Amino acid sequence: MKQDVVLAVDNLSVVKGGREILSISRLTWHKGEFTAITGPNGAGKSTLLKALAFLEPSRGRFFFNGEHIAGSDKILRARRRMAMVFQDPLLLRGTAMENVAIGLKIRGVRGRQRRQQARYWLDKLNIAHLADRDVRTLSGGEAQRVSIARAMALEPDVLFLDEPFTYLDMPTKAALISELKDLLTETGTTTLMVSHDLTDMPFLADRIIVMMDGSVKQVGPVEEVLVRPKSRQVAEFLGVENIWPGFLRQGADGNWLFSIEKTNCVLTAERGKGQNLTGPEVLTAACIRPEYVLTCPEASIELNAPNVFRGVIRAVFPLGYYYRFKIDVGFNLSALASVTQFPKLPRQGDTVSVFLPPEKIHIFDPVVAN
């Protein structure tokens, strides 16, 4: 096992009510890595987190800092190097300072050192001014900051976050995410976060684990998973609205040519690593995320370039600084565009130009396309 592997598990299984609800062959986490765990409700995300934190009865082989963890003594030592933050702050009655210091007190840290360490983390989370406040008077964002400070005060090797931003309003959430990213980078803490919100992940995470039905469907770097989902099921969960069946063949320049089924439209796509054709033309599917589709007023893009189409807006939805479009370009296309790209308000029936970057078009392996 590599020296920088902090946490690993082999053949993890969780059974409840006689039914296996979690089955994972192997996962590893490296020092300082931030991993986002996502999936639909009931996928097993929180169960995985609790099993890794030894808070859920399970079977499997666990490794922590290179040591095989078996037996109550080793489990206790490993748990002392971990900390967890939940959706609810779960603060105890008392002040913010008392809550941040409670874990240190349980672990036998003496009074003066305990207060200094607690105050340090209150300051790092920008809530030192709340040290003597009763936690019952705190806002949701303030309470969650106390909860994170309490966890970080233990100086854990591994931090588990179970949907910690769920109940926060957008400005509070954005500020906390930015500060947390800097804090975790500074401390080098290995972090695992369960989240439904895909907008958090590109900013926070190095890697994504997509779970469904108690198993891992895809693991990889954030950009790789979002752009190149392994299956249509994963793509749809990750918000990829543009998925088309069609036929794939080799282009003259080494790229793929993808003919969208029941249309005359052909897309150029970069050839994926390790992807090969089993014949001159195969049936598969292609996809692209809406935010990667460049959408502009009618004459803004040269029409003769590859993957450039003229289309008609069938629906437009204002989303703050963005527009979400449904466009007919000979096939149905969803796109997300900044309002700055449109000097005039776009309306249903307007003609637009769209460009689909070849490097952002993903071709599914034929065996999983459907």
TrEMBL record:
Gene3D superfamilies for this protein: P-loop containing nucleotide triphosphate hydrolases (3.40.50.300)
Keywords tagged on the record: ATP-binding, Nucleotide-binding, Transport
The keyword Ligase is annotated on this UniProt entry: no
SMART domains: AAA
ABC transporter domain residues: 7-238
Domain of life: Bacteria
GO molecular function: ATP binding; ATP hydrolysis activity; transmembrane transporter activity
GO cellular component: ATP-binding cassette (ABC) transporter complex
PANTHER family (alphabetical): SPERMIDINE/PUTRESCINE IMPORT ATP-BINDING PROTEIN POTA, SPERMIDINE_PUTRESCINE IMPORT ATP-BINDING PROTEIN POTA
Protein's UniProt name: ABC transporter
Naturally occurring in which organism (per UniProt): Thermincola ferriacetica
